[in-house]
Structures are given as structure tokens and as C-alpha cells.
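#lab-general

N.A. 3:47 PM
ok so I finally got the sequence cleaned up, no stray characters, all 150 residues accounted for. can someone with queue access submit it? mine expired

B.Y. 3:52 PM
send it over

N.A. 3:53 PM
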Amino acid sequence: MDNLTPDQRRKTMAAVKSKGTTPENRVAKALRSQKIRFRRQARLPGSPDFVLVDLRAALFVHGCFWHGHGCRKQNIPDTNRAYWERKILTNQKRDRRARTHLNKRGWTVLVLWECHLASMKEARNQVTTAVKRATRKNSVGKKTLRQKLT
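B.Y. 4:20 PM
back already:
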């Protein structure tokens, strides 16, 4: 049983943002601090949160609950549990399709999880690691920033 009225539930769900979240803002600040050029919300398969054009990399910032990270006990609501399980599974399938599609087009796909972006220090570390991963020889995209990072 839901502990909120339908009107309260509607307002709560309407407050959930899909763009401009705190983890996204931390990643943007970390990218800027490392002088890495990026675009937000580019029109690519899966709508990556950031596109690092020079690296030909698509960066996704995933919320742990919405994308089923499993970093903590899955706190799937007891109310309408089947819906939420199906919703998270559908999100994961869509994420896999987007990664595959982007890789086939020559893009390197990077995923940063919300739980790893709890502070600016963690965000900087995660962004540094992701950018290094994108510049490796076995990544899919071009490596034009390799000289800057080494």
C-alpha cells in the first residue's frame, strides 16, 4: 500500500529530474576543471549526458536506482513491485542497446554511477579514470587527447 495520496505521489514523481541533476553538475564541473570540451544532451543513440567530441566518447551519468546498479540493496518499492522491476529491467535493456549502437558507430561509451559521484573529489577521480579509459588503445573512439593526459 502506498503511504502517499495519489496527488502527493504525482508531485513527488514530477520532482524527479532527468537533466541537470547534482551528479551531472559535478561531472560537468570536473570536466571543465580538466579543460575537457564537452556537449550536453547531444542527439546520439541513448541521449548521452555528455559527449566528449575530441575523444569521440559518450558519457552517461546513471542513477543507481533507475538503472539497477545494485551498489546497495535494491530498494524497489513494495507498492507495485512488478512495475518497478519491469521498469528497471527495461532501462537496462535500453542502456545495452544504446551502448551497442554507439560502439558500432565508433563511439567509446563511458558510464559513471551516481553512487561514485557523492562528492566533487570523487567526481574528479571518476572523470579522470573515465577519460583515461577512453584514450586507451582498445577503446572504440579516436584518441586525440592522449597527449594532453600523459
